[in-house]
Amino acid sequence: MLNKKKNIDSGAISLFEAGIWITISLVVLIIGISLGGGLFSKNDTNTELSNISELMNNTRTMLKTNGVYNFDKQESMIGSLIQFGGAPGNMSVIGDKTKGNARLHNVWGGDVSLATKTDDNGDATKFVLSYAGVPQEACITLVEKLSTMSFIQEVDINGNINQGQISAGSVGAQCVTKNSGHQDNNISFISNN
Question: How would you label 30-65 residue by residue, b for 16+ Cβ within 10 Å and e otherwise?
């Protein structure tokens, strides 16, 4: 008599094994999505670091004539910079950029504005680049990195004026979270050039 064994299909998986693989896949997907959100946030901050540097440089080279910024209203200053092609291409332009009265928004949807600032003689030799609606983490990173730049002499964080390089502890105390009862942060970069 021959011993006959039943052939078992070793390539199939049971319902229990399939459930385990689906659960593992979902956990990996959830972790990937949660980490990916942080990557987008860091990318937004890096984008705005570049935009601020470009706006500061273009303001100095395109809008200063005979040593002064000759603008009456901040809307005309940012509008002129946009009209002259000085706004970064990845920023949201609100309005008709050909008329000199358009506005800019940052990646978080906050207003970006320029205004003149007078020196001790009353001449408009300085300017202020302001960013509204900046989340706390981005606020800390932007201020820490940009406060060391030679073209920025002062940084105003939510009404607190800082000169020179700002320490991490000081920045962390001045940049607020949205759920602390405040709106997102307002930062102004002041240039004496």
Answer: eeeeeeeeeeebeebbeebeebbbbbbebbeeebee
Query: Does pLDDT of 24 surpass 90?
Result: no
- Residue 89 φ/ψ, nearest 5 degrees: -65, -20
Please name which of 108, 155, 114, 100 lies closest in space to residue 132, comparing C-alpha atoms: 108
**10 pLDDT band (50/70/90 cuts)?**
low
Q: Which 3-state string (H, E, C) describes 141-175?
A: HHHHHHCCCCCCCEEEECCEEEECCCCHHHHHHHC
What are φ and ψ of residue 68, in 5° steps? Answer: -135, 160
Q: How far is CA 62 from the centre of its chain?
A: 23
DSSP-derived secondary structure letter, 51: H
- Strand pairing of 154-157 and 111-117? unpaired
CATH top-level class for 17-191?
A: alpha beta
Distance CA 112, CA 149 (A): 19
